[in-house]
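Why do we care about 3D structure at all? Because function follows from shape, and shape follows, mostly, from sequence. That is the central idea of this module. The next example makes it concrete: a single protein chain, its amino acid sequence, and then its structure expressed as C-alpha cells.
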Amino acid sequence: MTGLGLYDDLKTSIPRMTRSRYATPALDWLFRRPVFSSTDFVRSADIPEPTARRFLTVLRTNGVLKELVPSAGRRAALWVFPDLLNLAEGRKVF
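And the structure:
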C-alpha cells in the first residue's frame, strides 16, 4: 500500500468511526505528525477539545492509533499512527 492509498482508505473509514465533520482535519493532522502527545493533538488539530479527546479513544479502539506511553500525572500520553510509520519505514516497526 502507498501513503496515498492509506490516506484514501482512512478518509472514508474515519468519518464512519467518528461520525464527525472533523474527521478529515484530524486525518490530515495525523499524516503530518504520526508520533505525538495527546496534548499536542488537542491543542493544534483545530478540533474542539472534547471532540479531539474522543477521537483519540475512538481511533485507538478501531486500531488506527496506538498509545505508546500512557499518561501519568501531568505527563500527556504518547501516541503513534503505526500504519503510516510502518509504511514510511518499509517494515513493521509497530
